[in-house]
Amino acid sequence: MDSLKKIQQTVFSLHRLPDAEWDMFVQILTYKTFRKGDALIKEGEYEHYIYFLESGATRNYFLKEGKEFTVAFHFSGEFVTAFYSLITGTPSVVTIEFLEDAKVIAIPYRDLEVFYQNSYHGATVGRKMAEMQYAHRLKKEMELLSLTAEERYVRLLERNPELVAAISVKHLSSYLGIQPESLSRIRKQYARN
Prior knowledge:
This is Cyclic nucleotide-binding domain-containing protein. It holds the Pfam family cNMP_binding. The protein is α+β, with helices and mostly antiparallel strands. It is built from 9 helices and 8 strands. The longest helix has 27 residues, at about 120-145.
């Protein structure tokens, strides 16, 4: 499936754009490639784009007293950005790094705001995307408080089993809030199944 078709399916799953508005949206898109280990944005930088992951995966993390804390993973077919920086205009509190080679579609936020002003349907897509981000964040917080580390691991595994199996124990255990040894035991259990 070509990259434009992939982002169109994702956008239209939120709200269908009329052909003329889709054509306007396409005009603001740019295509980029990244290598495993590249940073999409680093802590302290300002975010100016929303990215659609055509292929690849990312990890969002922050540093505190020299220790990394992983807060999110994003996979192919998802949007990713340092939302807090993008919305507030302040430096990013997270670094977003690529876990594998990736192709992305970059959407300049400034151009996107103009598109929203000129497109009722586009503004609806933007609103629904914001609602989806809020719901996703709330679900993650609830899971963190109510599910065991093993249950959270299984949920992540359901999203992208191949990549989750390849994510380092260090990064995955940080995300799940458990010690690497505990994650190794959980992984062994699910590797047998």
